[in-house]
Each structure stands twice: as C-alpha cells, then as structure tokens.
Amino acid sequence: LRNDLNQLAATSLQCRITSLIPTHAGSYPGRSMPELDALMPAAGRAVLGYCFDPAQSVIESRSPDGWESELRVALPRLGAVSLADAGIPAGTPKDQPGVTPAPCPLGEGIIDWKKFFAALREANFRGPISIRQDYQPRNAFATLTKDLAFARARIDEAWPV
Description:
6 helices
C-alpha cells in the first residue's frame, strides 16, 4: 500500500491534482486514520489528502464519538468531507456495547453534528462537503432534499454569516 500511495502522490504531482483517499469502514485502507496516516508519503496535502466521512469512523469504531480521534489525525491532510450518518439498528439498546451502527439519513443517527461541524470550523476547514446515501430510502430525492436541509442548517450554525 505504501508503494501505491507513493505512486498516487507522484501521479497527482505530475497531473497537478490533489488525490483524496476516502475513509471507509471494513477491510479497506482508510478504516483507521492513524494506520493510513503512517503509510502516507511525505508529499504534502496539496498532492495527497483525505476525504473524511464521520459515519464510516463511527461504524468502524462502533462508538458514537469514534469520529473525533480519527478527524484529529485526518485534519492536516483534510481535503474534503463526505457527510453520512449512522444509527443503532431498530430495537437495539443504544448503550449496548459492540453493536455495529448502520447507515441512516442525516440527523437520525448517533453522530453529534454540532460538535463535528464545530471541529471543522475550529480547524478552519474550507473544502468541499458532499452528502452520501449509504442506505436505500423509499424516495431517494425526498431523502436527499431532507439531508441537504439538515447539512445546510449545521453549516449555517457553524459558520454564521
């Protein structure tokens, strides 16, 4: 993986682009930011960075605040944020340890969004923010509209005009 990341950094530099590695739970590079960060080449943030998804960190850690330490590691190379939420499956006690959260609409999960956006504001994050739907809603357009309104409200709270 280190060789692949070095090649990606060299290609990014040659093409004058910034390649972003997404965070993703499971058996993928990016499931653990400290693990991935240790493999990153010395190339700067302008060449190789991260697209951070707090829901993936929560799913991987099985903890509502699992995104916090992961975001701290990602911040020096944070190029973009991908918003998704994760919640405890229906019928499961919220304080039951070891339960794997599942993707859900924004604002319906266990992520503390005010805290998340406050951390981005404190880090002076100014990159792109996207929304992911890692679940199958009945009406994708209506759900995306609701997710967008939720995200817009959190952004407006964190960065008031």
